[in-house]
Structure prediction request, 382 residues.
Amino acid sequence: MCGCCVLVFSACRINKLLINKLIHRRPQRKNCGLRRFGSYKTDWTKNQTFSWMGEGKAVPVIFAYIFVIFIWATTPLAIQWSNSSLAFITSVSLRMVIALLICSVLMLAFRMPLVRKRSDWMAFVAGMVGLYPNMLIVYWSAQFIPSGLMAVILGLYPFAVGLFSLLFLKENVFNPSRLLAVCFAVTGLGVIHIDQFYMGNDAVFGVLGMMASAILFALSTVWVKTIGTSVNPLRQSTGVLVLAVPAFLITWFILDGEVPASIDIRSIVGISYLSVAGSVIGHTLFFYVLRHCSMVSVSLIPLITPVLALSIGAVFANEKVNEYTIAGSGMVLLSLAIYQGIFIRLSRSKIKSGVALQSLRVTRLLGNLKKQSIDIVRLVIQ
Prediction:
């Protein structure tokens, strides 16, 4: 429990530094390192806000980013609960159907049209790749490997994002320090779950499935970033579900097709949480964050969430936290600091502080010399 407290405190400190780095940008750097798509332009320094209608006062971007991290961190535990009495295809299909119903009600309540122009459909298709077949593969892979190892493999996501960003956006997010940081983070995730690598032969299916999921999700993220940044986040989430739900239902009918006779309370809680928080709120906020943040900031989310997920699991599900967990989590937090250049920023601040202190000392010395010179002149005159 002490180790969990240390991890949570360290994560909070790192997240605070990351948030400060994301918010406090110099005005002359347009879009805080973002690319401009179409006529849309954003700046973190202007405290952008989120609303379901796309207007008015609501959630600032940085809080949306934090909410996405929290939702992603709690998703693994919720998936385990939802699968406690249901088949994986039934669980994920039911989650998507409920999410579509909620989004449809919200769209009707706000009187928002689903499609404003034909290009919106392409944005929906791009986002759909992140749900179908991606989520289907994730739920299928969970049958063969532990959730911890799934988080390790999902650490490949930043690599894939960087590759697709270079191909589609012509935006090279990699440099030597970031490559080192990502490798260090993946190594740390491997250390966290080092005792889970010794598994049966079927584990290879889960490993390959999660690798495919990381690539598909990265492709969907960059694709949406390229063509879908002008679409309202709620419309984007609803449009993605409109396309994905029929595919999930057809797959459920082919692979299973049986209505569950009974559902336990854990499955109800898990599916309810994943439908509302995971699919409706989580996906809507994610599309909003994707709309306003650079690919570098978005690709950090899968690296931050495993450490928080471990802490949540230890507190609420009494999951074991050993020395490998503490050491690996520390490596992940350190890699995040390297990835965002926090140490470079701190060193620069220290140098600036040192220069400012020396300047103050020189100013004081010159002032004393001036005062002594005035005293000497007065004595000579007298």
Notes: Residues 21-48, 52-58 have pLDDT under 50 and may be disordered. The beta strands are 49-50, 59-60.
